[in-house]
Structures are given as structure tokens and as C-alpha cells.
């Protein structure tokens, strides 16, 4: 019997496993496929919510804590695994925004550096931008990014390097084993895995396991499609955001354009329409991108939750059953704090901050999202 069984090997599950292991627990992690191949692979890796001042403080709090830990954590990950997740603080330029006063008040309140910029300053930061319809912006110089496929690969390697973490890939959790209001483990197609604590970190699929037992949370899949151009290093240097679409330059010159927001159930196909829309976004913002070709087009399923506030904590009334899920568009930027907070709760030590906003239950039932 293991101390803790984690269902789901995305960034959230893998980081939760590492955090629990760091504090001395034996951990098993299972994924129905290979680890790190779903949303955590597909995402953009921007280490900030997109229009951060529009989120609840509960989201900002997780982001702020994680952002403070990222430099040290990513360095540890690269040193420990030999896989560089390509963390860089290359700045975040949000174009064409009209709510500068709210953004400025929010930045001051939460201690973020933010600068309002005009067309000339935008061009100084990013000479290739077409400022014709985008002549104002907000610049967050400290915001960074990480390269998702490299991140999940490094996390997988860190799990392997750790003693006392068992990885079960291609092993689906079919059913939670619960009796007398206590979790005992999970059934897989071939066996039962028993554990003192079970954490559901199954991303967009998290609600399914609970539903079978008439337990409910509001986590649903929202498809996001992205495209990637093969350009040159420094073709674009900063993360750009305009009209809800973003451009992310990677260190090797690849440039990601994202992303769509679609209710398509658990269907991960890519569409011609999205390809055209994303290309149009890219060309209108950076006309020179026309010189390059689209190298890749993919989709992932985000785990959405009410108000984008993840569920972190124990499932009410079932001893030993925990959730760490529902990070929607912000699973990477919220990840470190989310893993740490859940670990604090499992180990019953003083939490990094008040867990009530993330609790499963009371405050969400008021809005009808929890039964
Ligand atoms: C296009 C796109 C762009 C994004 N951009 C950003 C961004 O820039 N910044 C940011 O912070 N976030 C971003 N996100 C969001 C972020 O990627 C997600 O919030 C995050 O990856 C969720 O992580 P997760 O571990 O919960 O889920 P996932 O990575 O989806 O992992 C869940 C895992 O659970 C496994 N699983 C499911 N059911 C079972 C079961 N029954 N048994 C065993 N295993 C199971 C799956 O196989 C999967 O491996 C983006 C997402 C998308 C799709």
C-alpha cells in the first residue's frame, strides 16, 4: 500500500507527486496513456494568466507564489534531469487594451511591474508589430514562459530519478474504491492499487471518475488549437497578446500562435477553420510572418472550472480523497503553488495560504456548480 496515489500524469499530477515525495511520502502515479501528452504538452507555457487583472484574487495568489518559485525550480529541474525546460523571462506585451486603469491598480496591489506603452514604445520593444490598429499596450517585463514538451519530459525524468515514486503508464483508473466514507484506492483494468490518499489530477477528465459514484465537480473540457511557425531566432522576442490571441516566440525561432476556445466535448481534432483564423491573427499582428510556413497544428483539452479557480483540497465527506484539478487556461502558471497547497493539506501542516477559495463545496454550491 502506497501513501499517496495520483491519478493523472500531466503537469499537475507530476508536480504533486514530486512535492509529496519531497516531504517523505511514497507515491504512485498512474496515467491511462504516457505521462505529459495531454493539455500540459499542448499548452503555450505562458507563465501568467492572459489578462491577469481580470481574474479572482484566488487565481492571482497561486500565480504570484508560483512565479516567485519558477527560477529556482526550473534550474533544479534542468540540473536534476539534464533536460532544459527553456524557462525565460522575455516579457509580456498586451496590445490594444482599454482597461489600463484597472490593470495598473491591480499591478500595484499585487506587486507586478507594469508599464503603459504607446505605438513608438511598442515598436521599440517589437519592431515587427503592425501597430496600425494597436497603438497602445501594457508591458509586463518580468513575465516568462516555459516550453511545454520539454517541461513534461523533464518532469517525467525527475519522477524517474526520485526514489519511492512508482509510475504506471497506460493504466487507466476505472473506478475509485470507496467504503465507509473513506477512499482505499482505485481499480484499473488489471488490478487494484491501494493507497492511504488518492489525488485526482486527471485534467479535463477529472469529473468523469467522480460522476460514476454520483460525486460531482464542475470540470469540463474546453478545446484549444494552436499553430507553430518555423521562423528565425529573435524574429519576435516577447510574448504578445491582442484580442485574446497570443504569439509565443521560442528560443530556437519557432513561434506559436494560440489559441481557440471551443466547446467540443472530448474531441481533440484540429480544424481547417482554426488553422485559417490563427494564421490570420499571426499575419495581421506580424505581417512578416508570411515569409515562414506553418510547421505544426494541434489541439488540447483544458480543464475548465467555475471562474477559473481550481479545485484544490479534500472531497467533502470522503476521507483521503483529494482533488488538484480545474486549472483551465492557467495550469502551468498556477502549478507550483497548487501542488504545494495540496501537499500542505494532505500533510496537515500550515498551508501556504488560506485554502478555502479552492475548496470543493460550500462556496461553489451557491452558484450551482457543485451538487
Ligand atoms: C492550447 C492550450 C494553451 C494553453 N496555454 C497555457 C499557458 O500559456 N499557460 C498556462 O499556464 N496554461 C496553459 N494552458 C492550460 C494548461 O495547459 C492546463 O491547465 C494544464 O496543462 C492542466 O494540467 P493537468 O495536469 O491538470 O491536465 P493534463 O495535462 O490534461 O493531464 C491530465 C492527465 O490525466 C490523465 N488521465 C485522465 N483520465 C485518467 C484516468 N481515468 N486514469 C488515469 N489517467 C487519466 C490523462 O491521460 C492526462 O495525462 C493551455 C492549454 C491549452 C490546451
Can you describe this structure?
By secondary structure, this protein is of the alpha/beta class. It has 2 domains: 2-61 and 149-218 and 306-365, FAD/NAD(P)-binding domain (3-Layer(bba) Sandwich); 89-143 and 221-304, D-Amino Acid Oxidase, Chain A, domain 2. The protein is 29% helix and 25% strand. It has 10 helices and 16 strands. The protein has helices at residues 11-22, 39-42, 57-81, 100-110, 119-125, 148-161, 206-211, 272-285, 335-346, 362-365; strands spanning 2-7, 27-30, 92-95, 115-118, 136-140, 165-168, 175-179, 182-187, 192-200, 220-230, 239-242, 245-249, 254-258, 294-304, 311-314, 321-325. The strands form 2 sheets. Strands 1, 2, 6, 7, 8, 9, 15 and 16 form an 8-stranded mixed β-sheet that branches. An 8-stranded mixed β-sheet has the order 4-5-3-11-12-13-10-14, sandwiched between helices. Helix 1 crosses helix 9 (335-346). Residues 7-13, 30-33, 37-40, 42-46, 172-173, 201-205, 209, 224, 226, 258-259, 300, 302-303, 325, 327-333 line the site of flavin-adenine dinucleotide.
Helices and strands, with pairings:
Layout: E1 2-7, H1 11-22, E2 27-30, H2 39-42, H3 57-81, E3 92-95, H4 100-110, E4 115-118, H5 119-125, E5 136-140, H6 148-161, E6 165-168, E7 175-179, E8 182-187, E9 192-200, H7 206-211, E10 220-230, E11 239-242, E12 245-249, E13 254-258, H8 272-285, E14 294-304, E15 311-314, E16 321-325, H9 335-346, H10 362-365
Parallel strand pairs: 1-2, 1-9, 2-6, 3-11, 9-16
Antiparallel strand pairs: 3-5, 4-5, 7-8, 8-9, 10-13, 10-14, 11-12, 12-13, 15-16
Helix pairs in contact: 1-6, 1-9, 3-6, 3-9
The structure holds flavin-adenine dinucleotide.
Residues 7-13, 30-33, 37-40, 42-46, 172-173, 201-205, 209, 224, 226, 258-259, 300, 302-303, 325, 327-333 line the site of flavin-adenine dinucleotide.
